[in-house]
Design goal:
This protein is an all-alpha fold. 83% of the residues lie in helices and 0% in strands. The protein has 9 helices and no strands. The chain starts with a helix and ends with a helix.
Length: 206
Amino acid sequence: MSWLAAASTTVSTESTQQAIGYPTLFVLVLLGALVPVVPTGALVSTAAVVAFHQTAPFALAMVFVTASVAAFLGDITLYWLGRRGLKSRNGSRWLGAIRSRAPEERLEQAQGKLAEHGVAVLVLSRLVPAGRLPVMLACLLAEWPLRRFARGNLPACLAWAVTYQLIGILGGSLFPEPWEGVVAAVALTLLISLAPGLWRRIRTAK
């Protein structure tokens, strides 16, 4: 009967983790979309590692749904706030925050790509580190309506959630202990996010 007790304890522990973990993941990804200082990709990868080691059959699916919905709602909210800032004479702190993280050079690149490729640029912007806000600002300056932005942003958020979840699954599959997979996934996501900035510095130094 000891194995029954162990199984019951495992299920109870996983249920507690899910009850706390999914709402926490949702809130943190939502905040990360609104205030782009939270490493949301690392959060999704970490959650995927934990879900990979759980016995619940839909744990990974729940991570995907939670992350993609939170990212989509956060982006839509930020875009709506940005549109309000454009229409206001005094702007807004939200619009200012977007502008501060969209350097002029990257904004010009985003505007050119947006004019050439349209909605497809939104999908790529979510996958490229630090690419989301310049493209979002380009959409704002091009006066895209919220509905058009939402149509392009939905597949972008789905692709983003899948990508970082796969990183977490990879980390979880390579190591027997969840914490080892978490460390590997976080290190990989941070490397991905820092690589473009380091490459630009190397090119500038040359």
